[in-house]
Amino acid sequence: MTLLIALGSGDPNPWVKEFTALLPDRPTVKLGDSYEPASIEFAMTWYHPAGSLAHYPNLKAVFSMGAGVDHLFRDTALPDVPVARVVDPDLTNRMSEYVVLHALSILRQTRRYREQQKHLQWIDDDWQPAAAEVRVGVMGLGVLGSDAAQKLKHIGFDVAGWSRSAKSIDGIQCFAGDDALPAFLARTDILVVLLPLTDATRGIVNRPLLKGLARDGRVPAPSLINAGRGNLHVETDILECLTDGTLHEAVLDVFQTEPLPEASPLWTHPRVTMTPHNASVSDPLAVARAIAAQIRRFEKGEALLNTVSRTRGY
Predict the structure, then answer these.
(1) Where in the sequence numbering do the catalytic residues fall?
(2) Model pTM score
(3) Residue-wise over 21-31: b if at least 16 C-beta within 10 A, else e?
């Protein structure tokens, strides 16, 4: 009845400590420890080394340390057991904080005023649309996207959402499927990307998609916020769209290569805001509690929550 902590990087010892306290009736071990492979029944993973979970004949379930699970499916030897992701209020709230912060920053022209301050300029042209006049589109209406959309709506933005399959959120227009994507984009002034990374979504935020954003809004040009996955977007296309005016601003928390290479022009672009993949870094104790609760559910014969479809990839 042992829990294995399988991390590709970072210190696993704090996790061992948390789970030992939360699940005192079972051993918690990490990759590299001495233990009997047949004793491993559960694994918590984040970018574990490929193939490292393939040697446990009694493995019953795998838990992703975060909301994302694309890192799991990079492992072609991933055991055929249930996979669950973490859905925790702390993680959800932090993501919504990030999205609301940067949507408001775009709305209230924070970047423009910061530049004016730097150059000792006092310029006020009285151009300031209200939130209700700015249309935000959220791509990805899972737990994170739905919460962000509702909080943006509460602030006053005109919010719509798009997802692969049909969703319903009170007070928010929801688009679904490839056929509805052009209409969704055409009414979007600020695009928020919170999609899972799958074969179908890899590179979806590219030049053709960005060219489809609204051209009739109360903003100089549409803006992009990507806090989902770096490989959802094409960075060269984002830079081109910033240069030619297709995009006004880009807020990026995730990148195709992380850490972002020093040679990337994103570092110094005047209309790019970068953060180091920390839009939603959840409290380790909250994550450990959520996974411990899942293990207790499983042991009582109850179904795991937030399981992942291997066919869809999320």
Answers:
(1) 229, 277
(2) 0.92
(3) ebbeebbbbbb
